[in-house]
## 1
Amino acid sequence: MMTIEFPDKFVALFRSDLGLTVEEYALFTSHFHKEFVGKKQHYLREGDFNTLKAYVTKGCSRNYIIDETGKEKTLFFCFEDWWLGDIESFLTGKPCKQYVQAIEDMELLCITKADFYKLGERIPRLMSWFNTKIQKTHFATMHRLMEAKCSQPEEQYLSLLEKQPDIYQRVPLQYIASYMNIEPQSLSRLRKRLTQK
Amino acid sequence: MMTIEFPDKFVALFRSDLGLTVEEYALFTSHFHKEFVGKKQHYLREGDFNTLKAYVTKGCSRNYIIDETGKEKTLFFCFEDWWLGDIESFLTGKPCKQYVQAIEDMELLCITKADFYKLGERIPRLMSWFNTKIQKTHFATMHRLMEAKCSQPEEQYLSLLEKQPDIYQRVPLQYIASYMNIEPQSLSRLRKRLTQK
């Protein structure tokens, strides 16, 4: 069996922030396994079932959907120390509505849904954390909706940079443009203008 | 004290679906009070604190934000038997980012956040229901984001009609257009075209 190294932020989250005991933490982490997703590979496709909770230790990805004209629309990106997947499919057991594609080679730490809920019964704080996590995911999605409805491209550009300063080095321009609902050419012009400021 | 009549769907939700006992249900509902919001009045404004859980028994409303150019952007509507408010402000205790405005005269059944959480400690099923409710709210918001990114106006028009068949009788055209991110004139043309089909 491969030994798994858990990143500092993961340890801090469950040990310091959530306050799991040494025993609880050991039990929890013993249920994780590693998964790898190669660059451009899909971790999930529309119609798949998201049965894993996956913590990103390396790489980045995008969640996207395909519109009626066949065009891919990027909803959001995922980087190190985030949780990856289609949370609706995970929670409801229904097929995914989204695609999740690796933009770089990715390494994930995964626990099955069944194991997670089984442990949640023994360690109630895990479920409290998960419920709070869902709330935060909801707030982030609401902010994305408000941004999609309201923000000018320049504002969205700066907001992305603030959240993930290396995003323009790691994520191809066309995905960022799709996230911002503009054409790649417009994003190129915007970047030129802003970097010349 | 005014006697409160709880609508059938409210009773069914907490008695049949959630399975509260007669005593639990009586305790829970004894903490509700009625509130009224006049047509065009704001139930919440940006910067307010959402400290009530409010169940809509009559009327409808819209949640909106104001963009940098001062334009109102409708995020979603709320009708009878829905819960009203800015859930992020309710959960975090932070100021609202959204406005909630009555489109018709509204009647609400309200319980304070403090009472709700206090009861949640005595009736754990209430908290389970609330956590599930947040999940569903999250899914609805994610669908709104996907729709905002993807859907053609015609599709959004039909989806609104399906969810709320009387929406075009109750909600002014400009709010629906703003929800769909199109100009009111375009919505008028779209309606004409679709009703002639």
## 2
Amino acid sequence: MGNIVYIATSLDGYIACKDGSIDWLNEAGDRSPEGEDYGYAHFMVDIDALVMGRSTFEQVLTFGEWPYGSKPVVVLSSTLKNLPAHLPPTVSLSAEEPLRLVQRLSSAGFHHLYIDGGQTIQGFLAAGLINEITITVIPVLLGSGRPLFGMLASDVQLDLICSRAFKSGFVQSHYRVLSPLIPSAAGAEYHPEGDR
Amino acid sequence: MGNIVYIATSLDGYIACKDGSIDWLNEAGDRSPEGEDYGYAHFMVDIDALVMGRSTFEQVLTFGEWPYGSKPVVVLSSTLKNLPAHLPPTVSLSAEEPLRLVQRLSSAGFHHLYIDGGQTIQGFLAAGLINEITITVIPVLLGSGRPLFGMLASDVQLDLICSRAFKSGFVQSHYRVLSPLIPSAAGAEYHPEGDR
């Protein structure tokens, strides 16, 4: 556990179309067996809080009902000034850098963070702040869109924890990131570059 | 069968570094159990001929010994004028368009083609000329490099045939392309857009 990515991509690595649409994902989901949630509910049990970018947040708002109940959600944005009034008080806005945010949430007792949204995930990965990644690959090629992954200063090695294929053709693989900046053990010491 | 892609990528979808290097792949291979070929020999048994781009061909030349024996290999290039003299006569150069090449090879009795190299695969996919794709995902993020997939005029739907995880952490998934331009049955009729 620690900071975790749990996300679906096309086989060519996109999490959304260029305009942010995830119709292709919803259509794939509609072809899934009734009640199949691909481990999502089980995964969410151990999550203390969510961190998501503005784009993902706006996508979530289109779902209608707020899907995260009273679980704390931090929306990362440098432009948003207010959140819609109907959201629960557990939703907050932040413009913090990833490391500072993780440190603050850890101090508040939130050790297992679900990191969501392409740019947010890329920022956390580049900062060495992702501990685990579960990717569910949907059997479709989009050809273009918003990629899950981005630039990195150096290669990131991973350990495969497990992988499984579903009847729908989705392939879900669960990886541990080797040598992240912050170890995944709750309350572990921090070793940011500047503090050594 | 039909026209087949069989390739390894990083988790972020690259088949080589920007300079064409596949050191990261060789290093991952070196960590594989002795004798593990990830199904390659089995896959090659049914292949009638290989089609590869110039970049992949030049990579293969660095291996030293020519690895394809007397299996026909077509090197696609619009710039190469000659092949090294030490190569077997089963290696040939071509600047044909994918459809024309596939038709010519089919007429010559070569129905199961191994399509290799990023640009070549992208060209064949965009032309609707890929029937199956086997991707072996290596547990590493490169951050940049030469991507396996490229632009497409429209989504390409796939069917997962099977997926398996190896002890090395490699995840290999085998897909059938739905609605390719040319059905995979050997000798099937062609239905190129212009001929309907």
